[in-house]
Amino acid sequence: MSTAKLPFTGHEKIRFNVPPFTGKEFEYIRQAVENQKICGDGEFTKKASRWFEERTGAAKCLMTTSCTHALEMAALLCDIRPGDEVIMPSFTFVSTADAFVMRGAVPVFVDIRPDTLNIDETLIEAAITKKTRAIVPVHYAGVACEMDTIMDIAKRHNLLVVEDAAQGVMSTYKGKALGTIGDFGCYSFHETKNYSMGEGGAILIQDPAYIEKAEIYREKGTDRSKYFRGQVDKYRWQEFGSSYLPSEMNVAYLYAQLELAGEINDYRMARWKEYYELLTPLAEAGKIELPVVPEGCVHNAHMFYIKTADETERAALIDFLKEDDILAVYHYVPLHSAPAGLKYGRFFGEDKYTTKESERLLRLPMYYGLKKEEVALIAEKVKEFYGL
Q1: pLDDT tens digits, residue range 241-280?
Q2: What is the C-alpha to C-alpha distance for residues 26 and 108, in angstroms, rounded to an integer?
Q3: N or C terminus of the chain: which is more exposed, having fewer CB within 10 Å?
Q4: Which superfamily is assigned to 261-385 in CATH?
Q5: CATH number of the domain located at residue range(s) 25-258 in this protein
Q6: Helix or strand or coil: residue 376?
Q7: What's the pTM value of the predicted model, to 2 decimals?
Q8: Which stretches of the chain score pLDDT less than 50?
Q9: With contact defined as beta carbons under 8 Å apart, do 103 and 76 qualify?
């Protein structure tokens, strides 16, 4: 364990999340400043991109300002147009849908599996119409969707697959890194993620044929990347695009964590397993449900959640834990029930699990630096709430 002491202190309570900090972040930011290259695509951005390409096997990794922007780039690369339909779960963050709605597409929500809370792969095919252009599986909690089935459906219907792997860095499905199975994969480095740069993301590209277009979209519609490689004498406006390059200082902060990615992953997994073991008696007593990780899936301990009986019980448990300065939180409000979801999308089939499971899911504190004794205390308080 080599977590460094943050240069600030807070109230002595167990927070839900503490952004990862290894100790080299400030030094790397200083180096970026001294290099006099603090805009996009400096040395740290190149190092981080190579790290992901080598770690995942992706043909190309392009760092972005957020996972939202990575998803927007994916929507552009999929050539999403007004009226197109994109199949996705409703139990996800708004960015999953926003990226496609901004292109004029209609998000078609299908129900989730009650075990993993991922999109139910058996419901996707029935939701396909002549307007369907892509499938967007979301790997909830860093646990993979059933990608073999999803890729088979996509291949038979000539659809593109965009993996929302915002929570999936270091997770795998049958040995393949999440984000590298579909056509495009999107990562998040928000402060709540396992590896953070405050706000940031990345898009992984599998087919080299998309790389040049992706670079152009990312560089405000110009061929600036080719110019810096010496492939053109000057860069020009080639296509529409936007500014998706992150600050070099942000990526320098992230790179300090990538150097210790394995250690951070192992640390989080240890805490996750402790939670699971300590709370198993409650699950066996039928008081709560614990996370499910299917065979062939290796997760990254992005979160540890439990499922209570219902929303009322969850609210009572949150308040009970708060009395001991333990912050536990719920997660997504299903998109199809939100005002924008009702306006821009539609739910296909029956909402058998999406709303029900979302209303009883409770996330417990999980971060790099969470102490073993803190996990024990949290588990003990959860048991106390249930009288066990």
Answers
A1: 999 999 999 999 999 999 999 999 999 999 999 999 999 9
A2: 44
A3: N
A4: Aspartate Aminotransferase, domain 1 (3.90.1150.10)
A5: 3.40.640.10
A6: helix
A7: 0.94
A8: 1-2, 5-11
A9: yes
